[in-house]
Amino acid sequence: xxxxxxxxxxxxxxxxxxxxxxxxxxxxxxxxxxxxxxxxxxxxxxxxxxxxxxxxxxxxxxxxxxxxxxxxxxxxxxxxxxxxxxxxxxxxxxxxxxxxxxxxxxxxxxxxxxxxxxxxxxxxxxxxxxxxxxxxxxxxxxxxxxxxxxxxxxxxxxxxxxxxxxxxxxxxxxxxxxxxxxxxxxxxxxxxxxxxxxxxxxxxxxxxxxxxxxxxxxxxxxxxxxxxxxxxxxxxxxxxxxxxxxxxxxxx
Length: 252
What we know:
With 252 residues, the chain is mainly alpha-helical. It is 69% helix and 0% strand. The protein is built from 11 helices and no strands. The protein is globular. It starts with 16 loop residues before the first helix and ends with a helix.
């Protein structure tokens, strides 16, 4: 009866394939001394390591996105249920089913979470504004690109209204104001390049228009009896603001 020999080094790491390739491809007799072998960099190993690094990065990014999405969903649901002011970090942790350390690895507090949720909105609005002002042969009407703001608020009116009525109104107003201000500044600089040399002049117009836009938006959100569409409330904004702002910005 034959017994299979057991290696005295059962945990020895197998030889790399490149060594077996060398031995199998050699034409010399196995008893002869092998010629010197020049060390070749293990490029295959480097490629594998890079692929693993990229896979790990992709997995981490996916986990980060999932965690942030869970927290955003938890925040929106809790706003509807109890109002923003009454929400605690512990409420968010319980609803999203994540640990406290995980939360603070992404956000400082619930306000930071709320602001982060609007970064995507800010980017989307900026993209829409840029597309509206991209040269197409036709001149874009003054303040027309701001329609994207009114349409966004209309599409998310339930959320904005809930925020403004159930706590968080001041924070909502600041976030909206920042978005409107940024968009207006880009629009005015594009529309009136000759006015950009006078920063105070441009700043005055931007603040005036931002205030007017915000007042109409908040009025529109707070009054449930108002049935204006986004296009209608935007048209009111343009009729009220266009003449004075344009005259001011084109004055020498």
